[in-house]
Design goal:
Elements (H helix, E strand, L loop, with lengths): L1 H5 L1 H24 L7 E6 L2 E6 L3 E5 L3 E5 L7 E8 L6 H11 L2 E3 L5 E2 L9 H6 E13 L3 E12 L5 E9 H16 L2 E2 L1
Antiparallel strand pairs: 1-2, 2-11, 3-4, 4-5, 5-10, 6-8, 7-8, 8-9, 9-10
Length: about 190
């Protein structure tokens, strides 16, 4: 009993930290289930995107839309782009994008050549005939460790393609990555 009385402040701090951790885990656990309730619709060309309300548009151009967390300081962004008139195969384009950004994925990362199953909308699944994706830990410029997720998708009978990408530090990829994937699964075409 003497120990409890003597260290009551330490016990109070420990109990407070445990309560805060449990509360945080509970809130984070509910975020994915409340994605649609806590998102807003953004129209980008012929795309309709569900975007979490904590993502802010930081760059908006005719063929590109970029989101970042402006309420935090961590290194992360999601970008949605359309590149017109390039009929090269998507795996070749992906290789060129990765080479231009000097991104090398870890050896255990798998390149997918058809991830249309991600898209829930059947019209999107029919319209996006060619899809290539890679996601995982990588090095950029040899020294910077990143978590990078990129999709390239081409519509039926179209020479242009969409680029959907999310880039962050390795730790932050696990925080925003699921929301990036959820925004793509909710994607609609007008």
């Amino acid at each position: 009993m003497d120990i409890l009385v003597k260290h009551w402040m330490d016990w109070l701090i420990l109990i407070s930290l445990l309560i805060a951790a449990i509360y945080t885990l509970r809130i984070i656990g509910q975020e994915k289930s409340t994605f649609q309730d806590e998102s807003y619709l953004v129209t980008f060309g012929e795309l309709k995107l569900m975007i979490p309300n904590w993502w802010s548009i930081t760059k908006q151009e005719t063929l590109s839309l970029r989101f970042e967390r402006t309420d935090t300081r961590y290194d992360w962004y999601a970008q949605y782009s359309f590149i017109p008139d390039d009929s090269r195969p998507l795996p070749d384009i992906l290789k060129d994008i990765l080479d231009a950004q000097k991104i090398e994925f870890d050896e255990d990362v798998v390149f997918e050549t058809d991830s249309r199953v991600l898209f829930r909308d059947s019209k999107v699944q029919r319209e996006l005939q060619e899809v290539v994706r890679v996601e995982g830990k990588a090095s950029q410029d040899i020294e910077e460790r990143i978590y990078y997720d990129i999709y390239l998708a081409r519509k039926l009978e179209n020479s242009g393609y969409f680029v959907f990408e999310s880039k962050s530090s390795v730790l932050n990829g696990s925080v925003e990555g699921p929301y990036f994937e959820e925004s793509l699964s909710e994607l609609e075409l007008s």
